[in-house]
Amino acid sequence: MLCETRDLTKIYRGNHGVPAVDRACVSVDRAETIGFFGESGSGKSTLGMMIAGLTSPTSGQILFKGERISMRYPKEVRRSIQILFQHPETSFNPQLELIKSLTEPYRVYGLPYEYSEMLEYLSGFGIYEEHLYRRPSQLSGGELQRAALARILLVRPELIILDEPTSMLDVITQVQILNILKRYQRESDAAFIFVSHNSTLCRSFCDRIYSVQKGVFTPMDKEE
Ligand SMILES: Nc1ncnc2c1ncn2[C@@H]1O[C@H](COP(=O)(O)OP(=O)(O)O)[C@@H](O)[C@H]1O
Ligand SMILES: [Mg+2]
Fold it and tell me: Which of 20, 21, 51, 22 is nearest to 34 (CA)?
């Protein structure tokens, strides 16, 4: 198993002890896509954020490649587990030109950087030089989400949490993004956790689905 959670629980302060995520046991294997399907406020993002190491659990465990991981993650684990957010502007510093944000992973992870190669890479996401010297507010939601995805895939993650990654986007961009993700999964055997409240999309994109209700994650029969 690439990643699993054991009785992972999150109780936010000020929420009268009511768990946002309640003893969740989920697992995802290499090359597999699991879905978290449930209504707004059920705890999907909270579990995704805990797995990504961005929110600390109240109790329970997260295992990655069989080893227990806890905040804050070592650099190699941070690189291996990436998250794509629903609101693409969340992924970018509003003050920075796109080029600054897109070159950051090269610096942080010491990847070989060459401007023309980066341009070539970004063109695969429909991002071109004209976009690079703009701030996030000067780009469309679709452009920003494609740029966010380009930045994530640059570091070759093994697990990607996709938190309603296309729900703010038009259908064409949605299809582009899902196609890029599927191609990446085929060539890399990456695992995906796909968070959605759209049952049709969840069924078509995921191998297995957990239904989520009030913080409780239950394996669901896909035919249900
Ligand atoms: N930072 C936070 N502080 C306090 N409560 C939060 C926080 N984030 C989410 N919650 C609460 O936790 C519950 C689950 O939220 P969330 O994980 O965002 O659900 P979903 O992604 O399924 O919409 C909700 O009741 C929400 O209000
Ligand atoms: Mg959410």
Answer: 51
Nearest to 210 by CA among 139, 50, 224, 58: 224
Distance (Å, whole) CA 205 – CA 202: 5
Kindly list the domain boundaries of the chain, sorted by start residue: 3-92+156-220
Chain segment 46-83, per-residue pLDDT in tens = 999 999 999 999 999 999 999 999 988 999 999 999 99
- The answer to whether the CB of 92 falls within 8 A of the CB of 35 is no
Q: Which of 9, 12, 13 to mutate to test the pocket of ligand 1 (most atoms within 8 A of CB)?
A: 12
Element (H, E) at 47: helix 44-51
Instruction: Report the nearest-CA residue for atom 25 of ligand 1.
Output: 41
Pocket lined around ligand 1, Cβ cut-off 6 Å? 12, 15, 20, 38, 40-46
Task: List the one residue out of 215, 167, 209, 204 whose CA is nearest residue 37.
Answer: 209
At 162, the amino acid letter reads L
Is CATH 3.40.50.300 the classification given to domain 3-92+156-220?
yes
Q: What is the pLDDT of residues 108-138, one digit of tens each?
A: 999 999 999 999 999 999 999 999 999 999 9
